[in-house]
Amino acid sequence: TPYMPLPIKLLDNFHTIKSTTSRLHGWISLNGDYVWEDDGIVLDAEKEAKRVTDKAEEMEVERNKALVPPKLRSGEFKPKQSLGQNFLTDQNTINRIVNSFSKDATRSTSSITGLVELGPGPGALTQLLISKYGTENFRCIEIDQRSVELLNKQYPELDVRHMDVLQVDYPGMKREINGEGGEGLAVIGNLPYYITSQILFALADASHQDAIRSATVTMQWEVGERLVANLSTKAYGILSVVFQIYAETRMHFKIPPTVFYPKPKVDSGLVGLSFVGQEVLRRRLCGVRPRDLRMVLTKTFQQRRKCVRNSLKKLLLEELDGDAEKVQSVLNAQPQLPAAVAKLASEGDAFAKVQRLPEDWAAKRPEEINPAQFIELTRLVYGDELEEGGGVGSGYELGGKVWRKLKHGT
Ligand SMILES: C[S@@+](CC[C@H](N)C(=O)[O-])C[C@H]1O[C@@H](n2cnc3c(N)ncnc32)[C@H](O)[C@@H]1O
After folding, report:
1. Contact 98, 125 (CB under 8 A)
2. CA of 214: how far to CAs of 52, 177, 211, 217, 402, in Å?
3. Separation of alpha carbons 49 and 7, rounded Å
4. Rg over CA atoms, the chain
5. What residue stretches are annotated with the Ribosomal RNA adenine methylase transferase N-terminal domain (predicted)?
6. Exposed (0-12), middle (13-18) or buried (19+): which is 217, by Cβ within 10 Å?
7. What ipTM was estimated for this complex?
8. Mind listing the pLDDT tens digit for each residue in 362-376?
């Protein structure tokens, strides 16, 4: 259908087809049909890819021209500050957010099979999402009864759930839409900023069970900066470490206060997260338990100016029943990577390649330790679930609620 998202992944494949044989074997048209070389059609792959992209964007612009953000009659829907209600009023920004969502959600697969909007409010994003994806596989989560009523009236087919976004059972919702073992959900939302971190941590937990594939969400600019922060910067902290282990993160663009009503006092950013999924996550953690990682991160970043030796000493004393000698020997250890991680590193895996702790790790501050190294630091303090032969122990659960218990902002 003309409303199908552009199959970016398929276009990637399409390039691959050309590069391996230096001749074009096939191409994909806008409606998802393949045409094979055998059909007698030979095209310039890059030109065709560009043509398809341009055409899709042109159609998108045309289609969205008819849309305007919902106008609320005065007195009908007074924004509540306590619920973080800052409504989008600019259709161009709405289009850009939804376009970024489509890209994030189709990075590893060609189509979106289940989507969830967090906090639809009066429906600025909802309207465009329905026009692109329909209502069947779409769920909205909203705590404000007024919004639920408004959306029910406007889109009777749409499933709007009147509930707290922090109580969503994502694995259950995924099963409901896509069945057992189906694709993870794609999440979108202009979030209520007062619970941003908690929402994100709940998504990380859900990704333990492959319930979430991607999230494209607005947040306060500074929080977004923390998610994508590089090592040794002021913004680097728990959010950076967790989400750079659990996902690929990207800052799509900055959003000024002027496109919201009422105008927030801060700049916003649209962040895209593509969760790596259970299999890659298990490989990255290689037997380390997420709840232990959480403890190490909390202890070290609580005292971000202190070196790791000092901030972990108390924790180690507790773990090692007060045996100061053992604590010293851990703090002086030069740990090797587990064989499975070393193998990945030697094969060029970008994450594993930087996973080994440096010699002077104990003298470093937490902001100097990269996300992969935090996994090794946790292994050192708490051990892991690896068996004799180096395999991951049976019964090794990633966990249901691990991250979401963290206090907001830490
Ligand atoms: C920033 S507004 C976005 C509204 C709309 N999507 C837009 O872009 O114009 C955040 C929305 O989240 C809703 N909300 C706030 N706290 C919530 C919670 N705990 N659970 C579910 N929804 C919540 C608010 O009622 C509001 O509609």
Report:
1. yes
2. 24, 16, 10, 10, 19
3. 11
4. 24
5. 93-277
6. buried
7. 0.99
8. 999 999 999 999 999
